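ingest -> validate -> predict -> emit
validate: passed (alphabet ok, no gaps, 292 aa)
predict: started
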Amino acid sequence: LRAESQLARQARHQIQERLAMWNAPLACLDDDLRRLIPMPETEVYEGLLRTLYSTCQVTSSAIFRRSGSELLPLASLHTSERFKSPMGLADLPMSVHAIETGELVTLDVAAAESGDAACLAVLPWDAHDTHGVLIIEDMPMSEFTWSVFERVELIVRWTFMLRELRLATAAELRSGGLLPQGDFLALLSRSLETARDHLLPSSSLTLRLADSKSTTFGELVKATSVAAPEICAMTAMPGDAGLVVLLPFAGDAAAEAMAQAVRHSIPDVRAARYTIAGAERPEVIWGRLLQG
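emit:
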């Protein structure tokens, strides 16, 4: 019986990894999850806990980063004081077990109902060479089910996976400046794949010079670079007639804010915004961007 139970847990874990990789939209949390992806590092951990609170009824939780034999707090929500300070791994055996197995660890129902345990569940996580645990201190007993915990696991894994993809994209764009058209199309292709696989669209802007005599192409590049967010790719239109900008994994609000900032510096620039998603090839979208 124990062997069958272990096999069932392993199968569930493998299914969860695949869900987190490919089918996050099944969680029906698209908008909440999308907001987590571009959040600054200083805000994403609390944002993740609040998402779990609003969607999974996880009323009390904390997220920690592992440093050797210590757990260092990154964020907490409605927790007792003990989960707001650094903790030794030895002080929370469930965390040790979760880290060793790489799987979600929960109390059995009898222990959970007693109310004497330090926490109800621990989920290990990995993100960009950082390792830690999510600790669920409290939640309604009616929600203490595998289906809810699977939802928690899905949200956490999906969030960190997509943030890693975003960081990898940012690393490729560190050099700044204008990209060659081929490199821009490669990034556009990757954005389309992400939109198809994870329903996480990107946004694009076209910025055209209405009067090349009053504003030079160099001035447009400078103003756009100042207005650009951290992760942004730009390439020149043919004949330096303007710029095509791609904001990977960013929503329409970020693109609109960037367009307004450029128009503030260059009032006569013509800006148009596009959502990068769908089944079309990058070359087709590129042609539409140039025509628009």
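The chain has a mean pLDDT of 84.
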